[in-house]
Every structure is written in structure tokens, then in C-alpha cells.
Amino acid sequence: MGRDLVDIGPDESTLDALRRAVGTRRRKWLLAGTLLLGLTAAVALSAAGQPGDRTLDAMADPVQSLMSVAVPLIGILLAHDLRHAPRTTRLTPTLLAGVLVAAAVGVFGTLACVVALALVPSGTASDPWRHAGTIALGGVLVQVVAVLVGIGLGLLLRSTVLAFLGTIVLPLGCWAVLGAVDVLRPAQALTPYASVRHLLSGRMDAAAWAQWCAVLLIWGVGLTALGASRRRRSTPETGSARPQ
């Protein structure tokens, strides 16, 4: 995976950062491919599933989960642009742009599921829309955490490939390792994979919301804070030259 960098102006706004998110052909294809992946999954699930399995929660889980594999790469690329900007360049526009793009992806995933479910010709379950509001919100929150993980690892790791692999291996690896040890198994609730299951099922109670907040703090805020600290230490005041 080659370098894909977009220059950052000295007083970048959130709108400028949003333009960076789709500022190259590769980035446009990445976003389009992510949306197409979700749409294809929604259509396939609605066409192949049994009528009793055709519910919004049953479709939203795989659709949003598939898209959340690609969404961190958007954050990684946005973060890598900052490596060649002056240290004084603000991180906030990049974070806001990543969150807005991720939220749009989450909304699209829900809409794809709704349309595919509404147009299926051979019937659905008796209550296909149960917990629809929570599931729609959950889709947005899943993608927001995903892009923040990408931004955090993008700031921490210079290699795009290693950062992208980290967004997959680190969360799933922690979930698997914690699940393999009985005394540590309750800590699985603090991994993104576990919170995704709750959010996209729509069955959220106070404990589940507290779990998601902890996941956001650890995996979203925590990784980003570590990455921002590393950037402050490693980036010159005037920025570094962009590689040719």
C-alpha cells in the first residue's frame, strides 16, 4: 500500500479536513468501496435469508461490521497527512472530519438495510423493525469508534499497512485472549467487538451503554491521545518534507 498524502494548510478547518478525506482518487475509491460493501451485504442478506431471519438487527450486525473493517483506513490516511504538517497544526479538524465521515457511513449502512428489508419480495419476520432507533444510532457509533481507532493507530504507526492490520488484530486479538482466560473473560466487555454486538442488537440497557462509553474512552479517546502525544514529540515545528 503506497503513500497517499494530502497537504494540510496552516489554518485548516473541519471542511478542509473533510475534503482531505476524499482528496485523492484512492480515497474516493476507498469510501465508495466501503459503501458498496455495505450495500452488497444488505442485498445479499435480504435475498438469501429465511423470512424469520429478515429483521433489521439481523442485517445491521453483519453490514455495519463489514464496513467497520474499512472505515479505520479512512482515519489512518487522515492521520498520516498530519505527519508532514507543522506540529502546531490542530488535530481537532481531523478528528471531526473522521467522525462525520464515519457517521455518514453508519447512516448509509442503516438505510441500505432498511431499503433491502422493505423491498424483499418473499416476506420478513413478524416484527422486523424492533429496536430500529437504537440500531440506527448503534450503526453510527460503531463506525465512529472504528474511525477513531484508525486515527489513533495512524498517529502511532508510520506504516499504513501495519496501522490497518492493527485496527483488526488488536481489537479482535484482545477479545480472543481475554475470552481464553476465565478470570479475564468479563473484560471482553471492554473490547469493540463486544460492544458492537450489543449496539447492533438494539438491546441496550444502562450497563451496555456504560460498556460502550468505556470502549469509546479506551479505544477511541485513549489511542488518539497516545497518538497525539507521539506526534507532538516526533513532528518538527515546521513540519517535515513530503515524500516524493
Automatic annotation (TrEMBL):
Ranges that cross the membrane: 29-48, 63-82, 94-120, 132-155, 162-181, 209-228
Source organism, top-level taxon: Bacteria
Keyword set includes Membrane: yes
Entry keyword set: Membrane, Transmembrane, Transmembrane helix
Name the record gives this protein: ABC transporter permease
Biological source species: Micromonospora mangrovi
